[in-house]
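Question (not urgent): is this output format expected?
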Amino acid sequence: MEEISETFDFIDYTKLVIAEMLEQLQNKKNKDLPLDNIDSLVITNPRHPEIKIGQIYKDKATLKSVLSYFAITNHFQYKVFKSCSREYNIICLDKNCKWSIRASRNGTTQAFIIRKYYKIHTCSLDIRFGDQRQAPSKLIGNYIKPKFLNLKTTCTPLDIRGDLNDRYSIKMNYMKAWRSKDHALNGLRGNARESYNLIPSYLYMLQKTNSGTIVDIEKGEDDSLLFLFMALNASLRGWAKCKSIIVIDGTFLKFPYGGTLLSDSAQDA
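Got this back:
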């Protein structure tokens, strides 16, 4: 009987050792996962709504964006404890709160994995509903982009302030709301400087694809745009059948560089 008992003890001990070895191997496997095997699990959405231990993010920028949106929607603030090419650790803005997240790179890839996450907040409401440092104008601009997909949509900085305050209790001044709108428009349509730089290429392609079109451009000494003239070939050919009266109208361009847009029209004879 003693031999049988010793045999069962040995078997139980062996099972325990094997279980521990398997757990260690699994932990080692999860520590640096091959990216080829986890493509379907990688988070690429910058507004992913949940945060869990083991989540894999496409890169550090995606992780930071998700954390910012998560802080805004759940009404709390955090600060960066450590940030480098291999680690990203954040803690609650209140030094007495234990909420924290530690993430690091997955091996030699650009993906980041959440290694540790303490999700309970013990900070005060004054800190949680403060200035929302996790809501810079660029992040808000990305959030409000859909508002400007329709060119006819009107959304003023005051509208942005009210909407963000009602939805997420984010308080901002007028200038921050204006910069957020500017970021949103630049992200959708590009900024004015880049658009001006594309004018010569646009005029060239216009003449190549619309034979007979007349264009002329005049620049200043600093290579800035002074005047631009454009007449499409279709309009030039139609002029012969119009009354010899030209109506010219102009409108001011409402953007940082200013200027005036002139247009002319005629009536069919």
